[in-house]
């Protein structure tokens, strides 16, 4: 979904804005010949002058700092996905795209003004330090994390491998805060995980996100499963928030004949349409296929599910997906900063958009939020196979994944409803 675009004209203009400050905004916008924009910028400059002259704390009214905050507000006013990124946030985005970073290896979520641990990743410094599911992150290096966004907390915990980070945690089973000091390591996030045969001829794999290595990891997984006797496959993109459009396109290629339309995007202008055709060479992956989705499946996950459903190449099981059908371009700026800007919407081969409506499953099976969270954790920790050990570690006994069971039943010869009759 994300494509880095280095456009000289926009990059130079926005870069100049950041380097020179808002004082020169009018002259720069005048290059575009937009009188309305020039008038708005002039008004903005007057407000800036009032703030700089009258605000009670002079240390908080530095021009470049206010300019960056203004740019962030401008981008965020467009939609939930456009953003101006300062250098640390831009670096973090690039690390996510590369699926490799220096950190402690914990999966987290935002809950009631705090970032909470979903689970430590297997074999990581976070797990070795004893971090547990449900731990609330109170402080990182003596800085309170209350009210900070997930990205802000992540940026504090990430850093150079070999450097230590001090973390204070709140744990339900402890009266006092838990303090841990952890040495960061390179954390490589595999985007294709849990590769296994769930039945003698039924393969399963989970795509956690669509990043640069995803397509090659997918090919390796399918090759391995077929060598072990797989004749049908379940692709799980539940709670996959998306990622790179280019990655989704590469993952789709083996399912489409060369020259076949997989997805297309349209922007604000008629000539912005871009069609993505398969260039696959070799044997097609035409085996029976199920894709698992839920409300946490978004963006590139919906591209995959929507394209395969639209062309009758897969059965979709689960819940209606999130409904993020927009494309964000990543634009690099000077000083290591960048923009994430919505530049288009994508469509399935027949012209269907999932934007704000999502992909509807062929077979709907709704799971409660609690069951979904528990099943998600079970998938992330396949290394703990003993139910007793699992319950001692995470506080609940493993439960049945009803959506996965329905996929298996379908591939064995019938839908869940048919097998229950």
Task: Explain how this protein is built.
By secondary structure, the chain is α/β, with parallel strands linked by helices. The protein is built from 14 helices and 20 strands. The strands form five sheets. Strands 1, 2, 14, 15, 18 and 19 form a six-stranded mixed β-sheet that branches. It has a six-stranded mixed β-sheet with strand order 11-12-13-16-17-20, sandwiched between helices. A hairpin with a 2-residue loop joins strand 6 and strand 7 (143-144). Helix 9 packs parallel to helix 10. The chain starts with a strand and ends with a helix. The model is unreliable at 1-32 and 415-421 (pLDDT under 50).
**Ends distance:** 42 Å
Cα-based radius of gyration, to the nearest Å: 24 Å
User: What would you call the structural class?
Assistant: alpha/beta
Percent in strands: 15-25%
**Unreliable stretches:** 1-32, 415-421
Shape: globular
The residue fraction in helices comes out at: 25-40%
Q: What is the tally of beta strands?
A: 20
Mean pLDDT: 86
Looking at this protein, list some descriptive labels.
421 residues, alpha/beta, six-stranded mixed sheet, 20 strands, disordered N terminus
How are the secondary structure elements laid out?
Layout: E1 3-5, H1 8-20, H2 25-30, H3 35-54, H4 63-76, E2 83-85, H5 87-98, E3 100-103, E4 106-111, E5 114-120, H6 125-128, E6 136-140, E7 143-144, H7 150-157, E8 164-170, E9 178-183, E10 185-188, E11 192-199, E12 202-207, H8 214-227, E13 232-236, H9 245-252, E14 261-266, E15 274-277, E16 289-293, H10 300-310, E17 315-318, E18 326-332, E19 338-347, E20 363-364, H11 369-380, H12 387-394, H13 402-411, H14 416-420
Parallel strand pairs: 1-18, 12-13, 13-16, 16-17, 17-20
Antiparallel strand pairs: 2-19, 3-10, 4-5, 6-7, 6-8, 8-9, 11-12, 14-15, 14-19, 18-19
Helix pairs in contact: 8-9, 9-10
